[in-house]
Amino acid sequence: MQSGTKRGYQTQDRTAIALPEAQRALLRHVRPIDKAKVRLEQAFGYRLAAAAYASEPIPHFRRSGMDGYAVRTEDLAELPVTLEVTQRIACGTPPAGALGAGTAARIMTGGMVPDGADAVIMQEMAEETADGQRCYVRFTKAVPSGTNITPVGLEAGRGEKLLDAGERIGPAQAALLAAIGCDEPSVYRKPIVAIICTGDELLAIHQRLQPGKIRNSNLYMLASQIREYGGEPQLIGSIPDEPQEARRMLYGIMEGEADLVLTTGGVSVGDFDVVAAILADWDGDTLFNKITMRPGSPTSAGVRGGKLLIGLSGNPAACLAGCELLVRPVLRQMQGERAITADEHGQQAILAEGYGKVNAYTRYIRGIRYTDGATVYVRQAGADRSSAIVSLKEANCLIVIPPTKTGVLAGELVTIIPL
Ligand code: AMP
Ligand code: MG
Predict the structure, then answer these.
(1) Ligand 2 centroid to 209 CA: how many Å?
(2) Which CATH superfamily is domain 346-418 in?
(3) Which ligand is nearest to the CA of 200?
(4) Residues whose Cβ atom is located within 5 A of ion ligand 2
(5) pLDDT tens digits, one per residue of 378-393
(6) Global pTM?
(7) Closest CA to ligand 1's atom 16
(8) At the fourth CATH level, which superfamily is domain 63-150?
(9) What are the two backbone dihedrals, phi and then psi, of residue 168, each rounded to the nearest 5 degrees?
């Protein structure tokens, strides 16, 4: 066959549906991923499969917030006053006993405040003196009762819920889990996401450029996005632009261990759009093959054997936005957290520069959100071309431009979806 000859792939009729509808069509097929135990030091990025509760109050003892002296404030009624230092309390060692009247205890930050004491005076406000074996401390200023003492349960009472199921384990969550003694939290296993690329123009990244060919950048972009969403990417590589062979390979991958299968490229109506050709003639159910959004209107999805397949556009910017808008919600829901659909995004910003393009479809353009004083603005990132790759990194959100006959003016309020 001559290059460029139409191969006659049959593509299905395409009826475009709105993005939120497409998202819900996917979410209906999401099954929660199974649960696993993971060691806390390996738990970063996993989502909790069960809520976490405080087994003890936090803190569970009265804790000193300063290096200084624990005192009974009633002993400081008349100033200056000199009290005998009767004990030294290091961190990790409980006091030898309650604090007697007319005495003080040397105490370190994080130390356990003795019974009887009701304040800790910072050492900068005290003057310690020794007289033979005995130690004294002199104060010239009083402090209110409770000063520099963190009471028991200030942060959380016993049994209080600290983390929700579905919450992602980041640094703060890891600290909290450690603090409550949870060394192996129950988490959702990371969903395995197979990434398949299409396009005979693609080169592996180590290959030398050739005329008409490009390196496969979407593979690595998608793998990073999947990790960002808490998934485990499975980098499959490319399938050929030939439907029989491509279908056979795709079926094999869909029957494998992956929880979700993504393709990039080959979904539009070109002569060699292999994913479109497969979805037009396969034994799975096609959920949609067109969305009223740009870029990425040919984005398609289907389900086969209970497993979802999402066919993203090949254009890098369309692929990035498509993954964000369709794959993120699926992965969230797989990991026990309710997905947010595009019609639920509440963030808004003022469009800094007018957007003149007339749109029949909603546009999700890459944007840069920034603030000026208390006002949140957004402007377009880089070139408004879905094939752009160099300017991709500048975007920190997607700007939602609704269908318009006139464009959107500078100063108008638009919805943004943070990336
Ligand atoms: P397609 O969606 O297959 O029509 O591809 C649209 C554009 O995206 C074409 O210019 C492709 O060369 C490009 N493209 C497709 N797949 C990739 C990929 N994996 N990495 C980078 N660019 C790609
Ligand atoms: Mg292609």
Answers:
(1) 17
(2) MoeA, C-terminal, domain IV (2.40.340.10)
(3) 2
(4) 199, 265-266, 314
(5) 999 987 677 788 888 8
(6) 0.84
(7) 314
(8) Molybdopterin biosynthesis moea protein, domain 3. (2.170.190.11)
(9) -80, 135
